[in-house]
Amino acid sequence: METLRLKVDTANLASEASQSAIARAAEILRGGGTVAFPTETVYGLGANALDVEAVKKIFVAKDRPSWDPLIVHIGEGGMLKHVAAQVTGEAARLVERLTAAFWPGPLTMLLPRSAEIPELVTAGLERVGVRMPAHPVTRALLAAAGVPVAAPSANRFGRTSPTTAEHVAEDLDGRIDAILDAGETTHGVESTVVDVRAEGCVIYRPGVITQEQLAAACGARVWALEGKEEPESAKAAPAPGMGIRHYAPRAKLVLVEGEGRAQMESLAQALRACEAAGDAVGVMLPDEFRSAVAGGQVQVYRWGRLQDAEELAQRLYAGLRELDAAGVTAIVCPMPRAEGIGVAVRDRLLRAANRG
Ligand code: TXA
Ligand code: MG
């Protein structure tokens, strides 16, 4: 099939060109087609979440296994009743607080599935991931479509998530109906996925919203899934996709831990070791470590400042894709500190290196 490219100017959403691109994309969604669209995190590949035939097309286009559930995106609070069943008691209070604090925004909540949502969307699970995106283009698209939109990241299964329309086209051109192109996404890593229970929240996937922010907003305990002490009710439910290579470049990924000068020396050593092993080497190079690369054949991606985890997150996937495209066989990458959004960056890098 031919993939339609629809351009939107985020700064000029009211323009005729932007409006007609959004209207066309919404029409495709309502008609049971597939549209890749920007969000504040990464690009998603959307289809009408209430239409099982449309949802199937997402799995086919991505080569996504049917055990991996999709996140459902809603444009306004009134849509939630079509996606999730009623929550009561303490859990309802937590949902209320989280909604007030983070919606619209990069938080996905796992809630009991409504009967209207096909089982395929949740991979047969009783809970459905729901999020209300903040990106103005996503909001305009969801309002125009008037249906909840199931959307995983718009990449082939297992690959890095796309942060530009070009990334989407690399993976999915000819396999989906349209790409709504609004340039680079804002945060660059995915939403935080959180299971909301009466006892507190369990983070299934670290993301833009941090554990500290969640705890402050909900006033209850927040566990990381990998933690030893999650509540009993969450124990039987490992997050789908744990333990497999995900968010991955084609090249082998070599991660370098540490801090300051010691980390820079380890980085230089890893580069030498890869070169000695005959690899074509690329490096995700933070500004602070520039002197670690002294000539040689190393492909450099200027990543940003190690001190600025937001910037590292925003440029992470673009860097991995750029180095892949340059044909390297090994990518050496320093690990940022496990603070703020750095936790999500570390999580994606560990999974990309198959150590998640
Ligand atoms: O930022 C984001 O979340 C992006 C944008 C497009 O919204 N979406 C995204 O979707 O990253 P995806 O499919 O690439 O990742 C969704 C992950 C699943 O792989 C799974 O780990 C978790 O979210 N998830 C979704 N629904 C779930 C459920 N019902 N139970 C447990 N985990 C779920
Ligand atoms: Mg994904």
Summarize the structure.
It contains twelve helices and 15 strands. Helix 1 packs across helix 6. The chain is an alpha/beta fold.
List the uncertain runs. 227-236
Largest sheet: 11 strands, mixed
- Distinct small-molecule ligands in the complex: threonylcarbamoyladenylate, magnesium ion
Order of helices and strands: EHEEHEHHEHEHEHEEEHEHEHEEHEH
Q: Which class do the helix and strand fractions yield? A: alpha/beta
- Mean pLDDT, to the nearest integer, reads 94
What is the spatial order of strands in the main beta sheet? 1-8-2-3-7-4-6-5-9-10-11
- How many helices does DSSP assign? 12
Rounded radius of gyration (Å): 20 Å
Shape: globular
Which helices and strands, and how do they pair?
Layout (H helix, E strand, L loop, with lengths): L3 E4 L8 H15 L4 E3 L6 E5 L3 H11 L8 E3 L6 H4 L5 H14 L4 E6 L6 H4 L4 E5 L4 H10 L3 E2 L14 H8 L5 E4 L10 E6 L2 E6 L5 H8 L2 E4 L7 H4 L16 E5 L3 H17 L4 E6 L12 E6 L4 H17 L4 E5 L7 H11 L4
Parallel strand pairs: 1-8, 2-8, 4-6, 5-9, 10-11, 12-15, 13-14, 13-15
Antiparallel strand pairs: 2-3, 3-7, 4-7, 5-6, 9-10
Helix pairs in contact: 1-6
